[in-house]
Amino acid sequence: MEMTKQTAAAKRVRLPRPGRIVINAVLILCSLIWIYPIVWTIISSFKPQADFFKEQLTLFPATWTLDNYSRVWSKANFAVYFFNSVIVTVFSVLLVLIMTNMAGYVLGRYKFVGRSALMAIFLSSICIPLVSTLIPVYQIVKGMGLLGTRLGLILSGAGGAHVVFLLLFSSYYSTVPNELEEAAKIDGCGFLRTFVKVMMPLSSPISTTVIIMESLWTWNAFQLPLILTLNNPTARTLAVGLYAFKGENTVDWTGICAGGAIAMVPIIVVFIAFQKFFINGMAGAVKG
Amino acid sequence: MAGEARNLKVRIDHVSKVYETRNGPTEALRDVSLDICENEFICVVGPSGCGKSTLLNIIAGLQMPTSGKAYCNDHEITGTGTERGVVFQQYALFPWLTVKKNVMFALNMRGVKGAAAETEALEYLKKVDLEKFANHYPKELSGGMKQRVAIARAYAANPEVLLMDEPFGALDAQTRTQLQSELLETWEKDMKTCFFITHDVDEAILLAQKVIIMSARPGRIKEIVDIDIPYPRNQETKLLPRFMELRNHIWEQVYKEYLEVRK
Ligand SMILES: Nc1ncnc2c1ncn2[C@@H]1O[C@H](COP(=O)(O)OP(=O)(O)O)[C@@H](O)[C@H]1O
Ligand SMILES: [Mg+2]
Questions:
Q1: What is the ipTM of this complex?
Q2: Number of structural domains, chain A?
Q3: ω before B241 within 30° of 0 (cis)?
Q4: pLDDT at res. A4
Q5: Does residue A227 sit at the B interface (CB-CB below 8 Å)?
């Protein structure tokens, strides 16, 4: 651990002092501009509803309140949306992770008839615009009788080929030295045990990437969840709920800000938490 | 034959191996037959690419012969088996597990679990002088230490036959000498059947009762040399006149094959 830190520090490029200050100043300014809308949204969510237009541009309100949250959470159903989002995200991520990990393992490490053809099909599916799959997916989900259900959302979200994840896993697995797999076989592991006990832990950096990207994707997914829950508002996720909230009554701006914060903060937390883990995983598993 | 009286462990019966590659077939082994008896220490030498690893992998059950058969304890080898352990040249440790957990992995697979596995793992690590590094990760160890862990792990699986594929090949000369001595000591004590591949003629003579010289590809057995130097042996054995004689002879044979490859 100590050693990796040192080498990482040694490798970091050191600019001369004045240059460093200028670059840092520019970068800090950029990040402030970038983050301002988010900060504004979160702070506005604590402003009293009546003061919103009065204090529209002030960053720090005169009075702080949690009214917006309680209103949105209970009256506008955000408790339900939040729960839906969590369920849909967790299970979509799990499904996608298991699916792409297993498929990537076989595609990356085994030769079989039709492998290249399969790869080509997966690759070419990248070119299909997502929008063009909306109607077929809608019809499939409808055919399964899962319209307006969380299961329908999970399956439709996890059901794609997730080609990028597949490629990540398969190219990673193709670089794993044979000896690791063989050592497991020698110890008496069969196919499944080799995969679970050796390959899965080995691929944890890729898994983390997939978890981060797929959580972001599912949590923020909008179009598909919107059309799949048109008939049943109680199955909406946060992204859809937030959108619907805007139109329902006279526009409740501070409420939207509170809803936005509820939708934003968990995924940012997940991202930050896993990012750290991701870097550790890289250092631990890639270097042998 | 002299070996007849002893227990036959592994029998290789007219084994050939052809790899199908994109650039046509590669004949790696041609009609190899060999008996490995219990408690025997056999070393294989030969130019690189002559099929030594292929032969070892066939015994390990990681690869199937194209023709001919291999047997262990009179059963045909059709896959890996816990009675056959392997030490690879490198990479065979699980990087996400500590040294102790690496050894425990082999023990768990053998059915030893929990605290029993832990104490046993520490015993095996003690044998290779690494109990202080039990909680380190492989990346924190030197090449020699990693290879010691790999050996401890192979022993922990408690195989009847130990297959080693140039286990010291990636190490510096000093570490290699040290690990040779340790392996020699261990074998003199437990006499575990060993099939050991090396490209180092000195190493082969120092360790083995029989040295098998393989010819350039397609790999065939060119000669089997009995090493009639009594055990216990140590690094000073290398200074004996008989050692020199054997070395000159084997080296000459290997060199001829090496020239064959160059052609
Ligand atoms: N999996 C494989 N596929 C194709 N050719 C192989 C494979 N493994 C080994 N070979 C070829 O077979 C020959 C023998 O290889 P190997 O047994 O590794 O030799 P050695 O261990 O003596 O160096 C080499 O020419 C090598 O290129
Ligand atoms: Mg080899």
A1: 0.82
A2: 1
A3: no
A4: 46
A5: no
